[in-house]
Amino acid sequence: MSATDEVELRIGATLTNLPIIRSLAASIAMRADFDLDSIADLKLAVDEACSTLITKAAPGSALGCCFTVAGDEIRFTVTVAAASGDAPDTSSFGWQVLTTLTDDASAWVEGNGQPGHHQAHIELTKRRIAG
Amino acid sequence: MTAPQTGRAATGYEHLAPLFVELAETTDDDRRHAELREQLVTGHVPLAEHIAARFANRGVAREDLVQVATLGLINAVDRFQPDRGSDFLSFAVPTIMGEVRRHFRDASWSMHVPRRLKGVARFEALEHLLQAQRLGRAPTPSELANHLGLSLEQVFEGLEAGNAYHSMSLDEALSPDAGSEPLGDTLGVQDPALDGVEYHESLRPLIEQLPERERTILTLRFFKHMTQTQIAERVGVSQMHVSRLLTKTLEQLREGLLAEPEAE
User: Fold this and answer.
1) From B108's CA, which of A29, A86, B50, B81 has a CA 20 to 30 Å away?
2) pLDDT higher than threshold 90 for residue B184
């Protein structure tokens, strides 16, 4: 994958920043010529994923967002330094929202063994509707 | 988060499950059928509200969302077949969300129509395209550009501009915090011209009874002196629609004034 297909954004993990991430998502999907419904879905899904991680973020940390446009899909990954080692709850209602809006969604947590050094991740994929 | 857990965790709706079985055994003309349906819809309303809350603060008025979600809930109750083995919640959530998403799409569409696309011919062409697309999927920016004879950049510009002035209900609280003022309360001052309006005292209760959208349109037209086209852009409906609503509202007000001569 060449870096030309990627867009990265590093932004404070606060809810007030959501509109910035959301409009970036919309802009990317729009320029990838996704249909308007898919653009709207991606916006909502990105919003949901980021709010989930913001609630898990360690104080003062930043969200690392990355969009990758590849062929017929847009992949969005978001990472944050998490306050705890618990993975985002995939049985939650929010997760159900996320999976309804996207084609693929996964969540996981990595740690380097030291307490307080956890990275929580969410990755989601939205595919172009054929036709 | 206080989201109800799906999966194995308790959902709070278990007690309603047997009603679905009973509902499936009754026929439409059975009086019990209507009772059960009502009970099931009412019992699951918190679910619809929950989904609506999930999508709040994204440019669509909260009460609209609740209404749309409830509609989705009713559809879900009507279409759910308990003998298929799945539980109601995993059936209902996508159904309700489908309804909410469609609303977002339609609402954002009506608001996203770029100003420069507003020429009558182009606007009609756009509506035509959207109609045609309704059978399949939504149009893409390149399809819009092709169809409207605009460059892609112009369409992008239009869509992005649309995002910037997403219309918002004046009654919607500015932040999710309790006690936050509705937007409407933070805007403008009492228009002194308002006092000069004939029948002010009798008109006011009638205006207060109007549906929110009608009231907004009326206010913008007659107290803020906006043109119908400006109002159309602000409210997110066509100018024709504004015209129809205004006509209807004024008729209603006139009737109301005549019907209540005792009002001062």
Assistant:
1) B50
2) no
